[in-house]
């Protein structure tokens, strides 16, 4: 079976991802797996349970992640397109790597964040559909990682709606960091008093 995260080497074969990008892909895979594991056996009643009037349900958190991932994928696609059209390019041996966006992933460090309207979730969506959409939206980001292989990611930048700028590498990494951040929120809802039994 062919690894979808390998790229065509132009001779009909596949080249593995360079280490920096493979590390990024593996990290994002672990972030997705952690969220899916937390909600694997969730019932619809549990997904729709609200711990307080001003708090999101688990289903709403998942929908927010889906909407955010789709937004991240669009930005990554635009930056890849600009990079291919305008450069600059860099050989893999000249690549630098960055740590994950830990401050963004750690809600205790950054505090609450007001989300943009376009990623405000809907209530009561089917939990099984949300899980499928989560996987699909995550993969919409991850499947673009091989395209980063010749791009100078530090030079390709786009503003985040919360007021800071990210380079291309971080626009990919933020998908996993964002999922990691909201995993803690999901776990807090599921541990709250009154959370429905399965």
Short description:
The protein is mainly alpha-helical and 198 residues long. It contains 7 helices and 4 strands, in the order E-E-H-H-H-H-H-H-E-E-H.
Explain what the structure shows:
This protein has 198 residues and is mainly alpha-helical. It has a single domain, classed as dinb family like domain (Four Helix Bundle (Hemerythrin (Met), subunit A)), CATH 1.20.120.450. Helix content is 52%, strand content 5%. The chain contains seven helices and four strands, in the order E-E-H-H-H-H-H-H-E-E-H. It has a two-stranded antiparallel sheet. It has a two-stranded antiparallel sheet with strand order 3-4. Helix 1 runs parallel beside helix 7 and helix 3 packs antiparallel against helix 7. The protein is elongated. The relative contact order is 0.23.
Tags for this model:
198 residues, mainly alpha, Four Helix Bundle (Hemerythrin (Met), subunit A), two-stranded antiparallel sheet, 7 helices, 4 strands, 5% strand, elongated, disordered N terminus
Low-confidence stretches: 1-13
State the helicity in percent bands. 40-55%
Kindly report how far apart the N and C termini lie: 37 Å
How would you characterize the largest beta sheet?
Answer: 2 strands, antiparallel
Mean pLDDT across every amino acid position: 85
| Class computed from helices, strands and strand pairing | mainly alpha
What is the CATH superfamily?
dinb family like domain
CATH architecture: Up-down Bundle
Spell out the helices and strands N to C: EEHHHHHHEEH
Q: What is the number of independent domains?
A: 1
For the record, the CATH class is Mainly Alpha
Question: What is the oligomer described by this structure?
Answer: single chain
- Tally of DSSP helical segments: 7
């Amino acid at each position: 079976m062919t690894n979808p995260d390998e790229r065509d080497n132009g001779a009909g074969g596949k080249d593995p991802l360079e280490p920096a990008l493979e590390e990024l892909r593996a990290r994002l895979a672990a972030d997705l797996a952690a969220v899916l594991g937390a909600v694997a056996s969730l019932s619809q009643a549990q997904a729709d349970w609200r711990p307080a009037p001003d708090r999101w349900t688990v289903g709403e958190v998942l929908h927010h992640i889906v909407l955010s991932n789709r937004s991240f994928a669009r930005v990554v696609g635009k930056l890849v397109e600009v990079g291919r059209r305008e450069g600059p390019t860099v050989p893999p041996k000249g690549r630098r790597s960055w740590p994950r966006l830990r401050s963004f992933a750690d809600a205790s460090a950054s505090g609450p964040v007001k989300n943009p309207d376009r990623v405000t979730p809907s209530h009561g969506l089917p939990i099984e559909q949300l899980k499928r959409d989560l996987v699909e939206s995550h993969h919409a980001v991850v499947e673009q990682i091989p395209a980063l292989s010749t791009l100078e990611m530090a030079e390709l930048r786009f503003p985040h709606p919360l007021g800071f700028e990210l380079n291309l590498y971080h626009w990919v990494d933020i998908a996993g960091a964002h999922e990691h951040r909201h995993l803690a929120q999901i776990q807090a809802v599921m541990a709250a008093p009154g959370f429905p039994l399965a």
